[in-house]
Automatic annotation (TrEMBL):
Gene3D superfamilies: 2.40.10.120, Acetamidase/Formamidase-like domains. It holds the Pfam family FmdA_AmdA. It comes from the Bacteria. It comes from Clostridium manihotivorum. This is Acetamidase. InterPro entries: FmdA_AmdA. One of its GO terms (molecular function) is hydrolase activity, acting on carbon-nitrogen (but not peptide) bonds, in linear amides.
Length: 299
């Protein structure tokens, strides 16, 4: 198994990044990741904005997948996510969603023990580890790992978890996959601007699907197909995710556009992944059980 450790991190996704590891289609790879603060806020007494470098979420990689080329799709199966024993959460009045509440800006360290995080005095919650940043090199100029886009990146989609299958468009030779920003917990929307940020290890399988082109990421998990869109506003992202799901139903499943529209209107569900970045991310979900009569099976 190929292992990529945390001495190999990037803060921008770019086709000019030099790969730190190579694999073949079908290989299993393990990524070790830092938290989004480069693990610099783990020591007691450290403060966000003072003791950490704000240069982008550290993403481990990039990984070169042999045979991947522009116009292909990269299938990423998330086999396992394990996390550390201490997470960091930063919350305060700097978050737009909470700015009117005059919250005190605080950096909190929360222990994770036996799959449980004690988030406030009276409440302990089972963790639900997910990947905040996962993506390939974009088509043109470099993009910060703070940002989401058609290449993936900082989507903060909590459905990218153990057992999920992520489909990413490939824009450059080798794809150049990079991963980071695990959250032990995060609610849809990430309204406080921060999840329970934590270091960890991600085991996955990468497979090249040749000559199958996607315009943006999609996820299959828990029996649902999800189209993910990132745009400058929530309305634009919602419209784009819906349009991508409609295209999926027409072009890949074989429905006509009217029936696809009816199915989405009655059975599709929009959800906000994150609203804290300058580009917002929304997903459209549809249970694939409705498509069984059409014989559709994901790649």
């Amino acid at each position: 198994m190929i292992i990529i450790k945390t001495e190999h991190v990037i803060h921008n996704m770019s086709k000019d990044n030099k790969p730190v590891a190579f694999c073949k289609s079908g290989d299993i790879v393990e990524f070790h990741t830092l938290d989004c603060f480069n693990n610099e806020l783990l020591p007691e007494g450290t403060k966000c904005g003072v003791d950490n470098k704000s240069i982008g979420n550290p993403a481990t990689g990039p990984l070169y997948i042999e045979g991947a080329k522009q116009g292909d799709t990269l299938k990423v199966e998330i086999l396992d996510i394990t996390v550390g024993t201490l997470g960091v959460n930063v919350i305060g009045s700097n978050c737009n969603s909470l700015s009117e509440k005059n919250l005190k800006f605080e950096t909190k360290r929360l222990a994770v023990e036996q799959g449980i995080a004690k988030i406030i005095k009276e409440i302990s919650v089972p963790i639900e580890p997910m990947i905040g940043v996962i993506g390939v090199a974009p088509a043109y100029e470099e993009i910060s790992t703070f940002m989401p886009g058609n290449h993936g990146g900082n989507m903060d989609c909590r459905q990218i978890k153990k057992g999920s299958v992520l489909y990413l468009p490939v824009f450059t030779e080798g794809a150049l996959l990079a991963i980071g920003d695990i959250h032990a917990l995060m609610g849809d929307g990430e309204v406080g601007g921060c999840g329970l940020e934590i270091e960890g290890t991600i085991k996955l399988k990468v497979t090249v699907i040749p000559e199958v082109s996607r315009r943006a990421p999609a996820v299959f998990v828990d029996g649902k197909w999800m189209a993910i869109a990132s745009c400058s506003s929530l309305d634009e992202a919602a419209d784009e995710a819906t349009a991508m799901m409609l295209s999926f139903l027409v072009e890949e499943v074989g429905l006509d556009s009217y029936d696809a529209g009816v199915l989405l209107s009655l059975c599709g569900n929009l959800a906000v992944c994150q609203k804290v970045n300058s580009y917002k991310t929304v997903r459209m979900e549809l249970p694939l059980c409705y498509l069984s009569k059409f014989g559709y099976v994901p790649y």
